[in-house]
TrEMBL record:
Transmembrane segments: none annotated. It comes from Nocardioides kongjuensis. Belongs to the DeoC/FbaB aldolase family. DeoC type 2 subfamily. Pathway: Carbohydrate degradation; 2-deoxy-D-ribose 1-phosphate degradation; D-glyceraldehyde 3-phosphate and acetaldehyde from 2-deoxy-alpha-D-ribose 1-phosphate: step 2/2. This is Deoxyribose-phosphate aldolase. GO terms for cellular component: cytoplasm. Its EC number is 4.1.2.4.
Amino acid sequence: MATTALAAYSEVTASDASLRRFLHGLPGVDQVGAEARAAGLGTRSIKTTSKAWALDLAIRMVDLTTLEGQDTPGKVRALANKALRPDPADPTCPSVAAVCVYGDLVGEVKAIVGDEVNVAAVATAFPSGRASMDVKLADTRDAVANGADEIDMVIDRGAFLAGRYLQVFEEIVATREACRRPDGSHAHLKVIFETGELQTYDNVRRASWLAMLAGTDFIKTSTGKVQPAATLPVTLVMLEAVRDFREATGVQVGVKPAGGIRTAKDAIKYLVMVNEVVGDDWLDPDWFRFGASTLLNDLLMQRTKMTTGRYSGPDYFTLD
C-alpha cells in the first residue's frame, strides 16, 4: 500500500476536494484479513527473559490516567507519586511515560513529577469534541499554560462521519498551533479518533492519514468513555498507517491504544504486534503508549511474580 500512498501523497493539498479524493483513494481494509492477522499475533508467546524486558517496557509506556468528574487534587497527586515510583519496594521498577488528567489538574501533577514524567491533558471538549473552535482552542491553551507536556485532543466524529474532512483537518492544525509555548516549542499532540464510533476499519485508516497529514505527533484509539475502545485489529490498522506514512513522508508518528487494556497479557499482545508490523523503531515510549488506569497494577503483579516467584495480593499495590 505504501507505494500507492507515496504517489498520491505528493498531490494532497489542504482543500476539501483534495483530502476527499486522497482519503477515499486509500486501499480498503480487508476486515477478515485484519482480524485474522490480529488474532494470530495475539497467540504469540515470549520467553521468560524477553517477558521481563517486555513488562518493564510496558510499564514505561503507560499513560497512567484518571479522567473522572470526581477527580480531586489529592487523587491526582497520589497518582503522580505512583507514576514516579510504581513499586516503592523495588527501586529498579521504571517510571511510567505520563500521567493523563484534565487540564485544570495539570499543575497538581507537575508539582510532583517535575520533568521526570510527562504530564498529558485532555482537551478540545473531551470526550465529545462538540464545542466551538474558540472553546476548544482555549481549552488547549489553558492546559499548555498550566504546564502540560502533551495534549490529547478529540476529533469531531460527527464532522468526520459526515465527510467534512477539511473541518477536522483544520481543527487539528489549529490545535497543534495552540500547543505552542512562549519559547516556540510545542506540547506534543495526540489525536483521539474514538474508533468505537468510526464504524469501519476504512474510516480508522482514513482518520489516521487525515490526522498525520495535519501534523499530529500521535494517533490514539479512544477516550476510554465509549465501547469498544482499543482492540488489536483497530491498532493493527493504525500501525499499518503510521508505517506507510513514514515510508511516504519520512515522518514517524506514534500510536496509543487506550481503553480496555487491563492485563499484562493484553499489553504483551500489543507489543508483539508493534514488533511484527512496524518494528523496533516503535518499541519505545516516545512512539507507543498504553492509555490505561488499571493496567499498571497487573504489570506490577506480574513483575513481582518474576522477581520473587510468588504473586502479590491484589491489594499490595495502590488502587487508582
